[in-house]
Design brief:
alpha+beta; Immunoglobulin-like; Zincin-like fold; 28 helices; binds 2-acetamido-2-deoxy-beta-D-glucopyranose
Length: 934
């Protein structure tokens, strides 16, 4: 959570846009570049000289958008050297002529040193000053370096921003100047030791024009006039802080008058700054901040270490992350207007980030994970989970389940790797919080920061403090350490699955662990060696108590353990309830059936909490998909959702419908599956429609939208007709190319179930798309034109036009996009395959010199089949055109291999699925008349 999460779960809903609402609160999340940013040079400054404090004077020239000033750095020599190395960005001009370096003599006098040479290292942000003689170890030195630089618009370093105030009739343009130094942009403003571990006091003064005010890390001490209508502000000396925690905002923003109530704690002084117009919406921000501070002070059991905190809602602030300077946090305006999570995350950094600081950026991901975890805990504790709608941590967890069970996790999007490392750490923290107990966990974190104020820590310090506390509280046996546990989860981008097979006669069970793989074939090398520290938390039907999350047994990196004293065969057990650890659990069939039957009772649905209901369903289905469990059992586990109205339990159901739907797309079973989906969703949706009311929570609305989207896809008439009537407005408009009045959610149903005429209209809009409009709108139309239809004629028309007729309105990129969309459903790739077969010679000739497109074509047309029939078709093509595939030779070979694997899956599972569906549908009415005919 502290980690932006590219939700894998959602990527699969290619066109099911409403599913995206799941990540609304994630969109605000940002990539913290500091976590594992490869751009942060690993080469650190030499350590012979260390800074003791800085005095910084900065003068802004707001007309010329420049700044100038000097920095005085007091340093101590700890090892012999004859040079000073400082960070200074290439764009920063250093006045080398007037630079002064001196030694503090024993007499208290300054002795200027003669500089031998000054280097700006090419392409590196370094300033190196050489001397003739070595410095004296233990000696105190000083440097005074004058500099000049530019104020830019992008938010690295010192930047300018603008906003308009509509003050009465005259809108007024305003500007502000602010800094964002994290992770290493202080060097853009002044030469310094720009590394987090150097934490020293700063004495700062800033010269600004009159009419503005300056907010800084510390309180203003005095202001004095300077020439030319300028004023100089002097600030109190900061506590020891890292360069990246330094920050200021020069602006004309107003202090928000806050609503009176709720300001429980006196200190620190919390001030909120915003545009005049935002006074009203911002008035409860101070209260929110105080509530979060109270929570955190209580959690850390350490008072807020500063006397004031300024919170700025900076207009048009475009940085990905808030600037969490010590005592001065700068947010985007909207970030302050909803929820507690974002605020809490930044506030955690005041303790764990500024006060106690990660020594180096490689330690920052743990810091970030802790911040994410605590922020979520704070938000949930304050508003009882309203902000997350209970989705924390499921969204993150499910993406990890899907990504890590691939054969090659992160093979496509490497940027995700950094994100998931952090998300995973957060889930491991959650696991520790449950299994060590919230109290032990909290004390461990408190110990981590104890006596480290104004100092730094490394990741291991956290794990060690937790280990000590866990031993002290008897929550972990002496031979085990949190380091080992965490290590087994964090090192690999993999997760285990646990299988629990009960011996009902003996009252025991065997739990085994192995690598969890959903994607086939399961041929990951060395998987035998992958073992985890797994906490087995156990619930039993005869003594249900979901509040007790203590561990029955740890699997200490062993393959198998025995569980004893289990209940009899009339009582189920649940291992890993509430997704305590990030791993799925499989059982023997009898235990699954006990669970399925229990969930069908009202008592069952009341006593088993939401996360656990969702987990049982999610695990069963995914384990079946992975080939670990019979689909009949997994389908049995879905029966209870006809009574389920909690969106958290429903959400994964939509994922299954999509996954399974696609996999069995080509087989006769698909029709029956579709009927099953209709029988599940129609009552859900109609129930939700009949019970709409104004003050329902957001999640109910989301669930309704999701149900509708999937029903629409399945041809639910009321929905298709609504979409068509909206689409007609567009078709009737005199200038249809000027803009699209149809909301995205209506487009796919029209192209899927609507007439050829409607679809042609869409095609015309793509062809005539004016340059002036947003390109993404065209892309969306093209995607839906290709990806939605089920009728071969529409798809053929598109292929004829773009590929055969070479219509000039479509680029190679468009064709790639069309191919990709066609590979998303069997209707698409079937037509594409036949198209390839029929036009082989033409296509071969056309794509002679366009290998990427040719490869793409072969892959999209052949790679997605999942049945024997498909295998026969593709291998026939392969034989027929042997030697003609060129660069795509290995692609079709890979397709054949994959189809074989998937066919095996289909042969094993389709009959089981079909039998189960037949059995169910023989008892059920099918709502057929409410749906479009295919
Ligand atoms: C900085 O350190 C020097 C040398 O230790 C000391 O003389 C000076 O007073 C310090 N300045 C500040 C602002 O702390
Ligand atoms: C700042 O705002 C005040 C009152 O809104 C106004 O009088 C003053 O001119 C503004 N200063 C600048 C530099 O815009
Ligand atoms: C820390 O905990 C102790 C004991 O519970 C309590 O007396 C003290 O007030 C707490 N300090 C803070 C800053 O919360
Ligand atoms: C599915 O549930 C039914 C009814 O409880 C049961 O008879 C059957 O054995 C279950 N099937 C599987 C494969 O678990
Ligand atoms: C491409 O689109 C334009 C309108 O933007 C149209 O006039 C032209 O005929 C189209 N080209 C082809 C080959 O269809
Ligand atoms: C596509 O082109 C082929 C051959 O040129 C033609 O037979 C077929 O009718 C066309 N299909 C559509 C839908 O335009």
């Amino acid at each position: 959570m502290g980690c932006r999460n590219i939700s894998v779960v959602m990527v699969i809903f290619i066109l099911a846009a409403p599913a995206l609402s799941w990540r609304m609160y994630r969109l605000r999340r940002s990539i913290d570049l500091s976590a594992t940013n490869p751009l942060i040079p690993d080469s650190k400054l030499p350590t012979e000289l260390v800074p003791m404090n800085y005095t910084l004077r900065l003068e802004l020239n707001v007309e010329r958008l420049t700044f100038e000033g000097y920095v005085k750095i007091a340093m101590t020599c700890v090892k012999r050297t004859n040079q000073i190395n400082l960070h200074a960005h290439q764009d920063l001009h250093i006045d080398e002529e007037s630079m002064e370096i001196w030694r503090h003599g024993d007499d208290g006098e300054r002795h200027l040193l003669k500089i031998r040479r000054i280097d700006r290292v090419p392409k590196k942000p370094l300033l190196v000053v050489y001397f003739h003689d070595d410095f004296v170890v233990g000696g105190s030195y000083g440097a005074r370096v004058p500099f000049k630089g530019g104020i830019w618009e992008n938010t690295d370093g010192l930047f300018q921003g603008k906003y308009t105030l509509s003050d009465g009739e005259h809108p007024q343009e305003h500007q502000y100047f602010a800094t964002h130094f994290r992770p290493h942009n202080a060097r853009r403003v002044f030469p310094c030791f720009d590394e987090p571990s150097y934490k020293v006091p700063f004495k700062v003064s800033i010269v600004r024009p009159k009419g503005y005010h300056t907010l800084f890390n510390t309180e203003l001490e005095s202001t004095e006039p300077a020439e030319d209508d300028l004023e100089e502000d002097h600030f109190k000396v900061t506590p020891p802080i890292s360069t990246y925690s330094l920050g200021f905002v020069v602006s004309n923003l107003s202090e928000v008058k806050c609503s009176e109530d709720g300001a429980s704690s006196e200190s620190p002084i919390v001030r909120v700054w915003a545009r005049q117009e935002l006074q009203e919406p911002m008035q409860d921000v101070q209260k929110k901040i105080k509530r979060v501070l109270d929570y955190l002070v209580d959690y850390w059991n350490v008072s807020y270490p500063l006397t004031k905190l300024d919170i700025v809602a900076l207009p048009n602030f475009s940085a990905v992350k808030p600037a969490d300077n010590w005592g001065l946090i700068v947010f985007k305006e909207y970030e302050l207007q909803h929820g507690y999570y974002g605020i809490a995350q930044e506030l955690v950094y005041q303790w764990l980030g500024s006060w106690v600081t990660p020594r180096w950026w490689s330690d920052a991901h743990v810091n970030k994970a802790v911040a994410g975890f605590l922020a979520a805990s704070a938000a949930i504790s304050i508003d009882s989970g309203v902000e997350f709608e209970g989705k924390w941590p499921m969204t993150t967890l499910y993406s990890i389940y899907y990504e890590f069970s691939k054969r090659y996790p992160h093979s496509r999007i490497t940027a995700m790797k950094q994100e998931t490392t952090c998300s995973k750490t957060e889930l491991v923290l959650r696991m520790l919080n449950f299994t060590l107990g919230a109290d032990t966990f909290k004390k461990g974190l408190q110990k981590t920061i104890e006596h480290r104020e104004y100092k730094t820590f490394v990741s291991n310090d956290i794990w060690e403090a937790l280990t000590k506390q866990a031993h002290l509280d008897n929550r972990l046996c002496e031979s085990a350490s949190v380091n080992e546990i965490v290590d087994s989860w964090i090192t690999l981008d993999r997760i285990p699955m646990v299988t629990v097979i009960r011996s009902y006669a003996k009252g025991t069970a065997t739990a085994t662990q192995k690598l969890y793989l959903r994607e086939r074939p399961h041929d990951v090398p060395d998987q035998e060696k992958m073992l985890w520290w797994i906490p087995l938390v156990l619930m039993r039907q005869d003594r249900l108590n979901f509040a007790n999350t203590s561990v029955s047994k740890w699997m200490k990196k062993v393959k198998e353990v025995e569980l004893e004293n289990l209940p009899d065969a009339n009582n189920f057990i649940i291992v890993n309830p509430e997704e305590i650890g990030p791993f799925p659990v499989n059982y023997d069939q009898h235990n699954w059936n006990l669970l399925a039957n229990y969930l069908l009772t009202e008592e069952g649905r009341m006593k088993i909490p939401v996360y656990t209901r969702a987990k049982l369903l999610h695990d069963a289905w995914n384990l079946a998909y992975a080939g670990e469990l019979s689909f009949a059992t997994a389908f049995n586990m879905t029966l209870f959702i006809q009574y389920e109205r909690n969106h958290l339990v429903w959400n994964p159901v939509f994922t299954f419908i999509d996954h399974i739907g696609r996999h069995i797309d080509m087989s006769a079973v698909h029709k029956k599956f579709e009927i099953y989906v209709r029988t599940l969703l129609t009552p859900l949706y109609e129930g939700l429609m009949n019970n709409q009311h104004e003050d329902e929570d957001k999640s109910t609305g989301n669930l309704r939208t999701l149900a509708k989207t999937f029903l629409c896809k399945a041809g639910y008439k009321p929905c298709v007709e609504e979409a068509q009537s909206v689409f007609k407005i567009w078709m009737d408009s005199p200038e249809p190319d000027n803009g699209n009045p149809v909301a995205n959610q209506f487009i796919c149903p029209v192209f899927e179930w609507g007439t050829q005429e409607e679809w042609d209209f869409g095609l015309q809009r793509v062809m005539n798309f004016p340059e002036s409009r947003m390109k993404s709108e065209r892309t969306y139309l093209l995607k839906t034109l290709a990806g939605c239809p089920v009728q071969a004629a529409k798809i053929n028309r598109l292929l004829n036009l773009t590929v055969l007729e070479n219509n000039e309105n479509f680029t190679d990129n468009d064709i790639s996009l069309i191919l990709k969309m066609l590979s998303g459903s069997s209707h698409g790739y079937m037509v594409l395959f036949k198209f390839l077969q029929q036009n082989w010679d033409t296509l071969k000739l056309r794509y002679k010199d366009r290998e990427a497109l040719w490869d793409n074509l072969i892959s999209s047309a052949t790679g997605l089949f999942t049945t024997q029939e498909g295998y026969d078709m593709v291998s026939q093509l392969y034989v027929q055109h042997q030697g003609e595939f060129g660069t795509a030779e290995h692609i079709i070979e890979k397709s054949l291999k994959n189809i074989k694997e998937e066919t095996k899956w289909s042969n094993e599972n389709l009959p089981v699925i079909e039998e189960w569906l037949d059995n169910l549908l023989s008892h059920n009415q099918a709502n057929g008349d409410k749906f479009m005919d295919q």
